[in-house]
Description:
This is C2 domain-containing protein. It comes from Fagus sylvatica (Beechnut). Residues 1-126 form the C2 domain. By secondary structure, the chain is α+β, with helices and mostly antiparallel strands. It has one domain (9-151): Sandwich (Immunoglobulin-like), CATH 2.60.40.150. 17% of the residues lie in helices and 47% in strands. The protein contains four helices and ten strands; from the N terminus they run βββββαββαβββαα. The strands form two sheets. Strands 2, 3, 4, 6, 7 and 9 form a six-stranded antiparallel β-sheet that branches.
Amino acid sequence: MGAPQLFSSLGCELRIIQAKNVESKSKGSFFVRYHLSAGNNKIIQLNTREISSKSDLSWNESFSLDCHGSQDSMDNLKQQNVVFELRWRNKVPVLGKIGGSQLLGRAEIPWKQVFESPNMEIEKWVTMVSIKGHVLPKLQVGMRIQVPAMVEMERRTRGKVNKWDECGCKDGHCYSSCGDYEIFALAATLEAF
């Protein structure tokens, strides 16, 4: 039986707080669309709720995601960016339908910046690249990474699990309790990040 394969587990949280320096629009609503890498060239796209263009542009919305994968996939996450788009939707029906949204500004924040920050957490204003107009919108966002633990995934042979391996046997030495091994795995995870 081969050595246990270790998988990482992370909690990722994004907060869309507020926007400023946004050109006012009449009869419409603003929202933020953000894009996250989901691995294997897949993207998760999420939208905040829409806020009337006549109100304060404060969302204060959070989104949490639990990420599980190999160490390689976690290293790949560090190379990815979260893309934020400030969008506007005209609420006046045209031919009986409310149309799509218009991109007003775009910004990216690399996950690496979050991993390298104190407590793996940032909150900042990002200046968006303006698509139209001369005003550069700003978006206040928060990003946080949490490392709950290193999870041991065992290789199973024909559905049977060797009970000694469950408690951390390696090279002929077995731990007396699984707790010691789990603490080692957590320390190894934190050191890897």
